[in-house]
Amino acid sequence: MDENDKAPSSMVIGYWMSDRKSQKLNWIEFGKVCRQHGYELVKLDLERPLEDQGPFAVILHKLTEIIARNDEKAIQIIDRIEQYIKNHPKVLIIDPLDSVRTLLDRYKTYNVVLNTTLNNIDVFTPTFVEILSTNVKENIKKLKNAGVTFPFICKPFVAQGTTYCHQMSVIFNERGVADCKPPCVAQSFINHNAILYKLYVVGDHYQMVERPSLKNFYASNDDRDTITFDSHSVSKSDSSSELSVLDPSESVKGSSIDPIKLHSIVKTLGSYLNMSLYGVDVVVENDTNRHAIIDINAYPGYDGFPDFFGKLIDCVISRRAQSVCSKAYFEDSGFDTSDSSDEKKSRAKLNSINQYN
Question: Where is this region: Disordered (predicted)?
Answer without folding.
Answer: 231-255, 333-357
